[in-house]
Amino acid sequence: MTQDEKAKHIVQRYIYWSMGAGLIPVPFVDLAAVFGIQVKMLYDLSKEYELAFSKSRVKSLVSSLVGGAVPTAAGGALSTLAFGSLAKTLPYIGTMVGVVTVPVFCGASTYALGRVFTQHFASGGTFLDFDPAAVREYYRTQFEAGKLVAREMAAEMKKNAGAAAESEPASAATASHN
User: Fold this and answer.
1) Using an 8 Å Cβ cutoff, are 42 and 63 in contact?
2) How far separated are the first and last CA of the chain, in Å rounded?
3) Which of 9, 112, 163, 164 registers the highest number of CB atoms within 10 A of its CB?
4) pLDDT truncated to tens, each residue of the chain (178 aa)?
5) How many domains does the chain have?
6) Is residue 174 part of a domain?
7) In terms of residue numbers, what domain contains 33?
């Protein structure tokens, strides 16, 4: 497996984790969890590319890139994400809004961040020479692409969960006859 393929697998794994964290029912705890997951993803990518990792530097870079780019991506994605997270406090409808929007936006953000840093590392860059302002537009385009990726991944998880639920009663019935 090539380094690029390994990096893609790392990013994909963390997209799933981010989407799962987006389901945390406590407003803004979900977003804090996603931030931690994204920092861990960058740690794993830095190991793959054999780069020095500084947690404080990475936190600053992620905050600068995501905070500076997402408010304009998707016509206010960061405010939509914050609203989705905060909406979880509202009974019924708020929970539904949060469950539908937040995981997709968390997955999209993680996808975009992974794509930006993978490209940067693959071209010989490090955390020390990373310039968030220079890659904001690329982050925005990858965020948009990431929404589609996250929706597809969510649909695949739902499909797999449905298939597992359908096969569970059959295997339970088989076990009870033995």
Assistant:
1) no
2) 43
3) 112
4) 999 999 999 999 999 999 999 988 877 888 899 999 999 999 999 999 999 999 999 999 999 898 776 544 444 445 555 556 666 666 666 666 666 788 999 999 999 999 999 999 999 999 999 999 999 999 999 999 999 999 999 888 888 877 777 766 655 555 555 5
5) 1
6) no
7) 3-158
